[in-house]
Amino acid sequence: MKYTFTDWDDRSYERETKGEIRIEAGQVSGEEVKISLKDSGKSFLGLIISRKEATAIISALNAANYEFKCTITI
Prior knowledge:
Elements: E1 2-6, E2 12-16, E3 21-27, E4 32-39, E5 42-50, H1 51-65
Antiparallel strand pairs: 1-2, 3-4, 4-5
């Protein structure tokens, strides 16, 4: 699978995974969730977000499954 990241300074990095990409999520506190993306067991992205932000991301992904473009601003 290919994936691309764009950094804050607009530099883009394109990579291709040799294995699978795993998404791990867990509660950090009562109001925060930690999401980690791992490629072949190594973490390449970690986010600590609020539960409200996590819900917004899930809603956007669900909309994309139905071929809708969804923009959520929090």
